[in-house]
Amino acid sequence: MDYEGLLELVKKRRSIRRFKPESIPDEYVDKIIEAARWAPSGANSQPWEFIVVKKQELKDSIVQLIKEQGTFQRKVELTREPELRMPGVVSPSERPSYADAPVFIILCGDTRTKDAYPMSADTQRKEAIFESSLASAFLYMHLAATALGLAPQWVSAVSNHSMQCLVKDMLGIPKEMQIYDMMAVGYPAAEPRTRLVRDREEMVHHDYYDKAKFRTAEKVRDFIASLRRG
Fold first, then answer.
1. Global confidence as pTM
2. What secondary structure does DSSP assign to 35-94, as a single string?
3. pLDDT digits (tens, 9 = 90+) for 71-100
4. Which of 44, 101, 142, 154 is 20 to 30 A from 52, alpha carbon to alpha carbon?
5. Which fold has domain 13-192?
6. pLDDT digits (tens, 9 = 90+) for 54-71
């Protein structure tokens, strides 16, 4: 693949909010995981484990757990200024969009692989390396799904502490594993909205940080508000 092809794939990768009900080939799921297992990781520790969930009753149970947690999340989100609130949290749909995806892929990391990192790395640094390794695999999953013409959606609600306990208990995930996030994947039933992307020139600095480009707190706040409107 040349650079232009890669850039087009990166631009095309989006979280899709509506799925067709039809199933996807097992071969596609295998290809998504095959790409992810080649992701870079700290000290080549390869901490990832993939749980492919297809059983409808299990998917429904995960969706229900996330919905139950949503009541508390809405209360927390409402403490924000109105223009900064996430619409999907404040006014969630009765049936979440990802509920219709034929496959959920939960990405876990084996916390014991942190022993592969240098002894000089403190606990905080080891955690950052661990998270970065899993983030790389998760991004590869999304790019692979996009390349296959599928629609991936990032479902991060499964990764907070209380949800981890519930989902791990439901699926028999060992305590040594840490849930990073879940990807719902299927065929897209809608086109995503245009994505707001910052201008390249305002974020690139040469040799030294250009303080003239440093955004004020107000500008950052306005940018976040524009994301909410968009």
1. 0.92
2. HHTTS--GGG---EEEEEE--HHHHHHHHHHHHHHHHHHHHHHTTS-GGGS-HHHHS--S
3. 888 888 889 888 888 887 877 777 888 999
4. 44
5. NADH Oxidase (3.40.109)
6. 999 999 999 999 988 878
